Amino acid sequence: MLTLALPKGRLAMESAEILLSKAWLSALPPEDSKELTYTSPDNRLRLLFVRSQDVCTYVEEGAADAGIVGWDIIKEGKFDLIAPIDLKIGACRLSLASFPDFDLFAKRSKVRVATKYPELTKEYFFSKGISCEVIKLYGSIELAPIVGLSDCIVDLVSTGGTLKANGLKEIEVILESTARLICNRSAFYSKQNELGTLIESLEN
């Protein structure tokens, strides 16, 4: 049996549907279930439902053999994992956003940036040669410039509707993100037959 960590929510169901279509699951987990694990009736696969930010940790530490998670989270955490497949689901982008009149290159001591992605944000501003102060938030990122907490934000964007509703504008895309299959390095070799079969089926 393979253990696979999935992020709770919409991406977990999309992932489960792919696994069902590839015969890795014989039935979908109940959508209204509060259980944090699900074992397929044929005992081929066990699913762990965890926060998206924790998927990589479960896989890297060996609590799960593999997982499905966004490229943005993988890049932010610099995890020691193998990511063999882009599943091309859960598409979104990590973007810089602010009010329409925001000037990234205006003369100021530092740009104050609110984000859940401090490492990718620092890398982006460093590449522009701009000094920044990162304000780490865990939700409602769009509120930060509205109340004067930050000059701009770096956050995930899907449709841009939330930005527009709050008077903000997408300025530049920092990273395109889709869901990837990730594997624990030890499991990639100790369970190479099972993981190899999983990888091959998801590629086709």
TrEMBL record:
Biological role: Catalyzes the condensation of ATP and 5-phosphoribose 1-diphosphate to form N'-(5'-phosphoribosyl)-ATP (PR-ATP). Has a crucial role in the pathway because the rate of histidine biosynthesis seems to be controlled primarily by regulation of HisG enzymatic activity.
InterPro entries: ATP_PRibTrfase_cat (IPR013820), ATP_PRibTrfase_CS (IPR018198), ATP_PRibTrfase_HisG (IPR001348), ATP_PRibTrfase_HisG_short (IPR024893)
Key words, A-Z: Amino-acid biosynthesis, ATP-binding, Cytoplasm, Glycosyltransferase, Histidine biosynthesis, Nucleotide-binding, Transferase
EC number: 2.4.2.17
Gene from which the chain derives: hisG
BP GO terms, sorted: L-histidine biosynthetic process
Enzyme class of the recorded protein, top EC level: transferase
UniProt family annotation: Belongs to the ATP phosphoribosyltransferase family. Short subfamily.
Domain notes: Lacks the C-terminal regulatory region which is replaced by HisZ.
Coiled-coil parts of chain: none
Reaction(s) the record says it catalyses: 1-(5-phospho-beta-D-ribosyl)-ATP + diphosphate = 5-phospho-alpha-D-ribose 1-diphosphate + ATP
Domain annotation ATP phosphoribosyltransferase catalytic: ranges: 51-203
GO CC terms of this entry: cytoplasm
Native species: Leptospira ognonensis
Subcellular location: Cytoplasm
PROSITE patterns: ATP_P_PHORIBOSYLTR
Protein name: ATP phosphoribosyltransferase
Subunit structure: Heteromultimer composed of HisG and HisZ subunits.
Pathway: Amino-acid biosynthesis; L-histidine biosynthesis; L-histidine from 5-phospho-alpha-D-ribose 1-diphosphate: step 1/9
One Pfam short name: HisG
One MF term in the entry's GO annotations: ATP phosphoribosyltransferase activity
